Amino acid sequence: MHRTTPPFRADQVGSFLRTPAIHDARRAHEAGEIDAAELHRIEDHEIVDLIREQEAAGLQLATDGEFRRSWWHFDFIGMLEGVEIVEIDHGIQFQGVQTKPKSPAVIGKIGFPPNHPFLDHFSFLAANTAALAHPVTPKMTIPSPTVLHWRAESAGIDPAFYADRDAILDDLAAAYRTAVQAFYDAGCRYLQFDDTTWAYLCSPAEIEKAADRGVDVENLGEKYVKLINDSIRDKPADMVITTHVCRGNFKSTWISSGGYEPVAEHLLAGCDYDGYFLEYDSERAGGFEPLRFLPKGDKIVVLGLITSKSGDLEDPDEVKKRIAEATEFVALDQLALSPQCGFASTEEGNVLTEAQQWAKMREIVALADEIWA
């Protein structure tokens, strides 16, 4: 049951806690004490060390930890053609805390530029995973196209280019098709679309908030299946594209509650993803029954049973028990294990230490080695 292609039995969502050197360099750059080239040099050094840490933990893959980003989504989205990140009067509301007051605005025709900085980010990651004594698979994470459709303020969509929010969908899908091919041409064979929208669709409270912001929430499941499938329809056969369904991850807080039942059929059976990273670290995610919609075959569900929101290690026996419960609805061969989310979806990071972060990753690898021996 060992896997040589992603998603792997022991996998990682994407982000890691920013190191002290990264935090110090960001502060120095903002204060004008170092230039962009020096910041980039420090990021390079810390990412190389991070790649080695992932190899040492026993992982078959490595990400760049999103060390060059402030946000898991806005950095990528704001570098698309026709999109910019703007200041608004509120942040994204988590439990008891808000993010910085930022939002994407659509100011022109949406496209994926050939010089999008994330392509260079991937190339650096790929070169340094290949240089390891035991090379691992470089994994790139980007936000799903659904995130821009959901998150943009209605007033932030320029009517000179798009009549309304839904009018961006075709160009958005075309931009992502270009992005998928560009990453493939750069050598990427493991790409992940990070996505909060499916979790929001499991939460009546978040659906109501979206409607208040001007999102037409009727038939969004069908609309998002089409957007995703249009975005990845030209994916080369030897490229794996997965998704991570996030319930919110900012300073160890969260946004969405509700089991996957309202979206499971659309998400698991309707979307043409190769794998799904699903958060299952708390009772807010509900039970495993929605996994019954996963088609039999090659698709993989990566169970996020190890929380990234605290440093306490999970009881291995309890994790094994929960995986056994999941096999009542999907075959063990179609399951894998990961943290529930990244450790730092924004540069602020979650409330745990680097030592606790790596202890969790080693636990995941050890459990996967035992369960899928």
Question: In what range is the share of β-strand residues?
Answer: 15-25%
Summarize the main sheet.
Answer: 6 strands, parallel
Low-confidence stretches are none
Supply the helix-strand structural class. Answer: alpha/beta
The top level CATH class name: Alpha Beta
| Count of beta strands | 12
How many separate domains? 1
SSE order: HHEHEEEEHEEHHEHHHEHEEHEH
Q: Write down the CATH topology.
A: TIM Barrel
What would the principal axes of the Cα set say about the shape? globular
Number of helices: 12
> Residue-averaged pLDDT, rounded?
92
Radius of gyration (CA) equals 19 Å
How much helix, percentage-wise, in residues?
25-40%
CATH architecture: Alpha-Beta Barrel
Beginning-to-end CA distance, first to last residue: 6 Å
What does this structure look like?
- With 373 residues, the protein is an alpha/beta fold.
- The chain is 37% helix and 16% strand.
- It has helices spanning 20-30, 36-56, 74-78, 117-130, 145-151, 169-185, 197-200, 204-212, 220-232, 264-270, 316-326, 354-371; strands spanning 61-62, 81-87, 93-94, 97-98, 102-111, 137-138, 140-143, 190-195, 240-245, 275-279, 300-306, 335-339.
- The relative contact order is 0.15.
- The protein has one domain (20-371): TIM Barrel (Alpha-Beta Barrel).
- A six-stranded parallel β-sheet has the order 7-8-9-10-11-12. It has a two-stranded parallel sheet with strand order 1-6. Strands 2-5 form a two-stranded antiparallel ribbon.
